[in-house]
Amino acid sequence: MSDTAPTTADTRRLAQEARDRVRFEEEALELSDQVYRVARRLAGSREEAEDLVQQAYERAFRSWRQYTPGTNLRAWLLRILTNLNIDHGRRQQRTPQTTSIDQNEAGDYFLYNKLESQLPDENPDEERVLERLSQDSIVDALADVPHDFRDVIVLVDIGEFAYADAAQILDIPIGTVMSRLHRGRRILKKNLADKAVPA
Amino acid sequence: MQPFIDGALSDDEVAEAQRHLERCSWCAKRYRFEERLRHYVRVAVSEPMSAELKAKLAALRTPL
After folding, report:
1. How far apart are CA A55 and CA A39, in angstroms?
2. d(CA A191, CA A92)
3. Helix, strand, coil percentages, rounded to 5, for chain A
4. pLDDT at A97 exceeding the cut of 60
5. Which of A145, A163, B43, B64 has its CA 20 to 30 A from that of A136?
6. Is the ipTM of this complex over 0.85?
7. Is 60 exceeded by the pLDDT of residue A138?
8. Cβ neighbours of residue B60 under 8 Å, at least 6 residues apart?
9. Residue A122 confidence (pLDDT) above 70
10. Residue A96 predicted with pLDDT over 60
11. Which of B24, B57, B64 to mutate to test the interface with A (most CBs of A within 10 A)?
């Protein structure tokens, strides 16, 4: 409580701030489904994803003044979430040595070629080729991608973020986003090919 | 092909890639597969948020 009576200007400023805050919270909550969808695949389990999303929203609502209106709020929320994920010690897991990743990488069209070759028709369409993959096999194949690579796949392919947003969220250069995306997708395709239902 | 699928090319580069895809059925088939695969993966791994979590988040709002 202040000793002096608030001036009209103060009252107006506080009312404006309250409105800005309500609008921020509403906009952030509208994005929560999309934030959760990405968080679920950044985290190892559903429980972990739920904790991360809840803590990220708590932190976002506390530090809402740091958000610049007009910038990408979904990216801002996921930046907070990614930092929390790191604080939780996820980064202590070691990325497998490069050599072992190389063995798990396939050429860009390895998956297509393998799936296509399993079909009896000479020239199958893409849908028939994709039907060889079950939903569970796709979830497992993604979860098996080492996390540095999986993070960029999740942000770009699942979250549909631009390279620049993914770079900002993960605090890595855009070139690193592109190279990890390229290798990550190759690892994912190798995993998918291993799990594909035989024709 | 990756920057093309990710929408990260300039207008000129997009036009050049499209001209190539019109002529080259080998690339066109693989391009369609890559694009469909991406969509397929996105749908397959999408898991809706629980109603409990949604309620918890709503409860974090500053009381009016």
Report:
1. 12
2. 24
3. 70, 0, 30
4. no
5. A163
6. yes
7. yes
8. A25, A54, A57, A58, A61
9. no
10. no
11. B57
Q: Let me know whether A17 and A79 are in one domain.
A: yes
Q: What is the pLDDT of residue A125?
A: 67
A128 touching B (Cβ < 8 Å): no
0.80 exceeded by pTM = yes
Q: Show the domain range for A76.
A: 8-91
Across B46-56, b (16+ Cβ under 10 Å) vs e yields eeebeeebbee
Which residue has better confidence, A124 or A149?
A149
Is residue A38 located within the same domain as residue A115?
no
**Closest residue of chain B to A58, computed from CA coordinates:** B60
CA closest to A54 among chain B residues: B57
Q: How many domains does chain A have?
A: 2
Asked if A38 has any chain B CB less than 8 Å from its own CB, the reply is no
CA atoms within 13 A on the CB side of A170: 28
- Would you place residue A106 in the very low, low, confident or very high pLDDT band (cuts 50, 70, 90)? low
Where a domain ends, among A51, A76, A91? Answer: A91
Name the B residues in 34-63 with CB < 8 Å from any A CB. Answer: 34, 36-38, 40-42, 44-50, 53-54, 56-58, 60-62
- In tens, the pLDDT along A28-49 reads 999 999 999 999 999 989 999 9
Residues A183, A116, single domain; the answer is yes
Residue with tokens 């397929």: B40
Amino acid identity of residue A95, one-letter, is T
Tens digits of per-residue pLDDT, B3-15?
888 888 899 999 9
Within 13 Å, how many C-alpha atoms sit on residue A46's CB side?
9
